[in-house]
Amino acid sequence: MTELLPLTPDELLTTTRAVRRRLDLTRPVPLDVIREALEVALQAPSGGNRQHWHWIVLTDPAIKAQVAEHYRRSHLAYREAGGEPADESAARIATSSDYLREVMAEVPVLVIGAISTGGNALPENQAGLWGSLLPAAWSLALALRARGLGTTWTTLHLQYEREVAEILGLPDDVRQGVLLPVAYTKGTDFRPGPRVDLDSVLHINGW
């Protein structure tokens, strides 16, 4: 069992940040640690407790490079369409995101969270489907943080979901929901991020 960081539940929840530039690209990540974190993630809720999720863990450099190239292409188009960052905070995020785009293939482990649709067409409102995968993916991020690793939530590769599925040999009824680049972090001293005031988004008994 990997030694855990001494974090309270609230500290773990509020300091699990999107980590890009502080991912340690040189330190190997044992598969056993990924398995530990996934065992925690599998305790997350899913619709009807059906647990139709799948976790594709990528460590092979050639496979990671192929997936990373699709991510890079999608990210470049996204950045071009978005124009210049609106403020200093957005500029920092953009710079950090650009960095991840260029080093994605070097990140020790890529984890793709996916879910089986049972061959059914995706509904117009897909909350029920993705609500059975995304809580587990967030639990995985928390479990990784507790073990001194970091990640960031990415979905831009889904612009090329079919191509990535072909690379990985995924069945037609398995749909990808998130790509998590995973590495040990450079330091573990993360702090809560800036957020809007609660009262600006809180509604009691209606809008």
UniProtKB/TrEMBL annotation:
Domain of life: Bacteria
Enzyme class (EC, first level): oxidoreductase
The EC number(s) this enzyme carries: 1.13.11.79
Coiled coil: none
Protein name: 5,6-dimethylbenzimidazole synthase
Entry keyword annotation includes Ion transport: no
Key words, A-Z: Oxidoreductase
Similarity section: Belongs to the nitroreductase family.
Domain spans labelled Nitroreductase: 17-182
Gene Ontology molecular-function annotations: 5,6-dimethylbenzimidazole synthase activity
Organism: Nocardia cerradoensis
